[in-house]
Amino acid sequence: MRKNILSIIGIILIGVSIFIAKKLIDNKNQPKPVIPKVVKTVIVDTVQNTTVPIVIPANGNLTAKQRVELYSEVQGIFKTGKKLFKAGTKYNRGETLISLDAAEYYASVQSAKSNLYNSIATIMPDLRLDFPDVFQKWQNYLNSFDLNKTTPKLPEISNEKENYFITGRGIVSAYYNVKNLEQRLAKYRITAPFSGILTEALVTEGTLVRNGQKLGEFINPETYEMEVAISKSFADVLKEGENVSLNNLEKTKTYQGTVSRVNGSIDATTQTITVFIEVAHSDLKEGMYLEANLNAQKVDNAIQIDRNLLLDSQEIYVVNDSVLQVLPAKPIHFSDTKVILKDIPNGTVILNKPVPGAYAGMKVQTLTQKKDSIK
Predict the structure, then answer these.
(1) Mean pLDDT for the chain?
(2) Do 143 and 245 lie in a common domain?
(3) What distances in angstroms separate CA 122 from CA 115, 171, 312, one per listed residue?
(4) First to last CA, the chain
(5) Does some domain include residue 36?
(6) Residue 374 in domain
(7) Cys-Cys crosslink for 95: which of 91, 111, 151, 300, Cβ 3.0 to 4.6 Å?
(8) What sections of the sequence does the record tag as coiled-coil (predicted)?
C-alpha cells in the first residue's frame, strides 16, 4: 500500500515538471514586443548672416552732472532769507542760497573805502600844481566814487613820474586792500551758480556758521551721469557720442543716453576702463540705479543665438534631412544669455530651442517657430 502511494506521488511530480518545462520553453521562443520609436519635434530656424552689434551690459548709480558742495569761507550768523534752507528747495541761478550776518565786517570795509577816498582827496592839490595834465582824470575818479557801491578801478597811470607820486602816497596799496576786503565781504552771501535744487542742508537759520564748515549740497536735476566700468578690450572701440539704452531694475522704463566721456587710463587692479554716460529725463533722480547697454562693436557676417545652444565642444546642432548633426562654430562674444557666432553658412537649419537628450544622428521632426530667419 505504501509503495503504491509513493509511486503515484512520483508520477504527479514528473507530470508537473514536464508541464513547467514546456511553459518555460514556450515563453522563451515568444517574440519580444516591439517598442514604437518616438521621433521628437524640434523648433528650428534658418541662418541668415548679418551685422550683429556687440552690446555690453553695465550698471551704476546716477549722479548730477552739475553739483556743488557748499562750504563757508567766513564766520557769521545764518540770516533768514526768502526761502527756507531745506532739502528739496528749488533756487534759480543767482538767487541767494545762504546769507550770513556781515554787519561788523561791512563796517570795516566801509572804513577802508573811506580811507582810500581821503587819501586820493589829499593829493589832489599837489596833482593840480605838479601834474595838471592828469588832474582831471583823478578828479573824475573821485566824482564817481560811491561808498555804497563797489570800488571802481583806479585810473590808468600815464607816466613814470605819476606812478612814483601815486604809489608813494600809498594810493595803490590802499586800493588793493579795499578790493581784498570787498572780495571777502562777498563770501558772506552764497548764490546759486545755476538753477537747481538743494539736496542736503546741514545748517538752519539762526545758527553760527564757522569758517570751513560744510553747509549742504546743490545740484542741477536736469542732467545726470552714470559711471560704469567695462573691459579694457573695448577701450579702442567705445567713442564719445555713442547712443546708450538704459532701463530701471524693474525693466518698466527705458531712457536714452550718450557716452559723454571715456577715461584715458585703465584701472590696474580690475583691468577695466571707466565710461561716463549722460542722460536727461524728468523721471530720473540722483542715486537711482540703472542698467545700460553699450554698443561697443559690430561683427559682420555673424549670428546671435542663446548660449545654451552652444555645446562645450564649440559646436551647435544642425538639422540635415530630419537628422541632428553637429557643426563647428566660432564664438566671437559672450553675454549673459547670448553668444555671437561666425562661420555658420547661410541657409543652415539650426535648433532654436535646446533638445533634452539630443545626440548626433538623432531623428527629429522640425517645426519653425518664426517666419524670420535667425540673425
Answers:
(1) 86
(2) no
(3) 10, 10, 96
(4) 97
(5) no
(6) no
(7) 91
(8) none
